Amino acid sequence: MYIRHKLENGVRIVAEEIKYVNSVSIGIWVKVGSRNENNHNNGMSHFIEHMLFKGTKNRTAKEIAGSIDKIGGQLNAFTAKECTCFYAKVLDSHFDIALDILTDMFFNSSFSESEMEKEKGVVLEEIGMYEDSPEDLVHDIFTQSVWKGNSLGMPILGTEKTLKAIRRQDIIDYMGANYTPENIVVSVVGNFNKEHVLKEIEKAFSNYKTSKKNEVVTAKPTFTPSYNHKEKNTEQAHLCIGFNGLELGNEYTYSLLVLNNIFGGAMSSRLFQKIREDKGLAYSVFSYPSSYTDCGILSIYAGMKPNQLDYVIELIIEEIKDIKENGISENELYDSKEQIKGSYILGLESTSGRMNSIGKSELLLNKIYSPKEIIELIDKVTMDDINNVIDLVFNTDEMSAAVIGPKRSTILG
């Protein structure tokens, strides 16, 4: 049974009691990410995420880390394209400590200029590490190409130029515009006392307000077919092929998940079996859907020897044509649905996984689906639904690609 409560200032609380566990996971979700940025402040959301760990009016950075370490808990955060989350997982008896640490970071971070300069160096190292990981970087190059000119295509980490330009007042102004009460969801899952949890969160957040209203309007990106090749002397060629996908909450969301599982989302998938198992051409090959509030994308990745690049592209296109012409079998449909349900149910055994699920759902969809509802949505996927999604997504005339490696593809252009 989910608890949903909204404070007078607009902050939302979502919670789920699980009495048979000994832990509690807490997340503070903010509806802001790299999509809220522009060419001048790209990387701001991610940099703020880092800075909240660098000291407050009450604790140094070391004391923040030590406070959670000494109770055996976990404290972390992440930035995505449309949200940022600060979270902790602790023993249920330490809920108050975890909430105090998270809210101290959230409300009282000092943003010391000396700490900012040090942390810029850390993030620059992170950017450098990412540049040295072509298997990750190719996905960013791909989204930058297909969503060119739209903030959704910009990298979450930002660039060296935009990062170095960030000033303390820029952080304060950005948070004032985006870290507004109506953009905040506090998510709690685990063994806790409902009355106590609601009371403590309300005490921490009820007086929170900002001087500015969030006036950022994000434009819906247009999927632009393109081919982008980044020449790099790598041992492997890294390929990303993609199609226009589905937005969050689309009626065919679960149909796409079932289809993707069959096509390239699992070890038993067609792509994995054909390219890795049958042909031995790639160690890593997979596909995955990404969904955002008003758009989505389906991406296919493969890493192979540079001289096998065009052959692998041919095989991927063959599999796409086959699934468009012949569809899938009833056995594939049944097996995929069972596999997705199994993975989903296993994921529910983690309080942090459930905290992520209900927090993100409330933040971006203003709705929480129960496990029973999600299982029903997966079970309801029909062969007609799959065929509709195949027609919607696998449009080879609108296919885009990005490659990192020493050679260009002669097939892609």
Q: How would you describe what is shown here?
A:
The protein is α+β, with helices and mostly antiparallel strands and 413 residues long. The protein folds into two domains: 2-205, Metalloenzyme, LuxS/M16 peptidase-like (Cytochrome Bc1 Complex, Chain A, domain 1); 227-405, Metalloenzyme, LuxS/M16 peptidase-like (Cytochrome Bc1 Complex, Chain A, domain 1), CATH 3.30.830.10. The protein contains 15 helices and eleven strands. The chain is globular, with a radius of gyration of 23 Å. InterPro entries: Metalloenz_LuxS/M16, MPP/UQCRC_Complex, Pept_M16_N, Pept_M16_Zn_BS, Peptidase_M16_C. Belongs to the peptidase M16 family.
Protein topology:
Blueprint: E1 2-6, E2 12-17, E3 23-30, H1 44-51, H2 61-69, E4 74-79, E5 84-91, H3 95-108, H4 113-131, H5 134-146, H6 160-165, H7 168-178, E6 184-190, H8 194-205, E7 227-231, E8 237-244, H9 253-263, H10 270-278, E9 282-291, E10 296-304, H11 309-326, H12 330-347, H13 351-365, H14 371-379, H15 383-393, E11 400-405
Parallel strand pairs: 2-6, 7-11
Antiparallel strand pairs: 1-2, 3-5, 3-6, 4-5, 8-10, 8-11, 9-10
Helix pairs in contact: 3-8, 9-12, 9-15, 10-11, 12-14
